[in-house]
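Researcher: Can you fold this with adenosine-5'-triphosphate in place?
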Amino acid sequence: MYAERVVSGMRPTGALHLGHYHGVLLNWIKLQHEYPSLFFVADWHALTTQYDDPQHIHRNAMEMVVDWLAAGLDPNQATLFIQSRVPEHAELHLLLSMMTPLGWLERVPTYKDQQEKLSSKDLSTYGFLGYPLLQAADILIYRADRVPVGEDQIPHIEFAREIARRFNHLYGREPGFEDKAKEAVKKLGGKRARLYDELRTRFQQEGDREAVEQAHALLEEIQHLSVADRERLFGYLEGTGKMILAEPDALLTEASRMPGLDGAKMSKSYGNFIALREPADSVTKKVRSMPTDPARMRRTDPGDPQKCPVWQLHLIYSDDACRAWAQEGCRSAGIGCIECKQPIIDSILKEQGPMRERARYYQEDPNLVKNILADGCEKARDLARETMRDVREALGLDYS
Ligand code: ATP
Ligand code: MG
């Protein structure tokens, strides 16, 4: 079985923005206290779109890790590392590529979307097509069951689940698995064996997840099973054979699609972002020049918050009282748009204060970040090696 574990990454493509913070980082910061967590700099993923200009990746990576630490990731709680320093990710990616149908990759919605959006780049490359597969390898290599990401990543996590399932289906079966599993069921003893069979049927015929959980509980409480039999019974239950790779789930925050200054998803490439450590005067200027409800041309025209990108930010930054004030003031033309924007500016600046402080601490001594990453890479690599041992064995490539 696999452990509860959190893993996620970001591409080092430049300074992080508030979309990364509210959409993902806040979740990372919470989860690091709840589960063993790994967070990585996806530098190979940055190369899929920046293969023609890789010189900035190193500096961007360091800046991004400073942003993470400034936001509140704690290197004593979470493991922070660099993807390319754990080459086992590449080995798993290669092995998975052998069994990945081309159609699965071509159908991932981001593939065509991104090609259209970044039309100035030639993205009809082997590496770019494989983007979601590399991401699947990043997750599966830690057998992580929880992946905190933004909404746009959901199809990629679903893809990783399908890859894990396919891998387990293809390679999770030892010779004579079915017979060995039936033998193991008998060893449970009459009453328990009957209950196990019943629960297994309920799951396999009706997809009843509760039956799986009950069966897990049943197996957990039996002491005399060998490790091998236990694994067979878990695998036989769900029809996967032996579970070598775990199927992950996406975890979202409330702002899993944080809007930018124009109301569209905040994104570096749309130029509608506020950086995590954007200077105060620039924050003020950007928010003040945000578009509002287009029907509200004059101060005396009433507006509709539902049509205003500023309202979207109130939903993230303001408490109930402030939201009521903004709604009422907008609809009645009681307040002007500049007034309405001020509490948001104040909240952003307040949120940024401690981050600037912490960032300064890490920037003053670049060795701090270097050491945190060196330590993290080593820890991550130990875990990745463990999985790769099982993967190679399942494929008969262990040569022992
Ligand atoms: P950008 O779109 O600004 O270039 P990115 O999407 O390229 O950023 P990634 O490394 O692909 O950066 O994404 C890092 C994480 O941040 C992903 O989990 C992604 O879903 C999340 N994310 C990025 N922008 C937002 C946003 N506006 N709201 C919520 N989550 C976001
Ligand atoms: Mg993205």
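Model: Folded with adenosine-5'-triphosphate in place. The chain has a mean pLDDT of 94.
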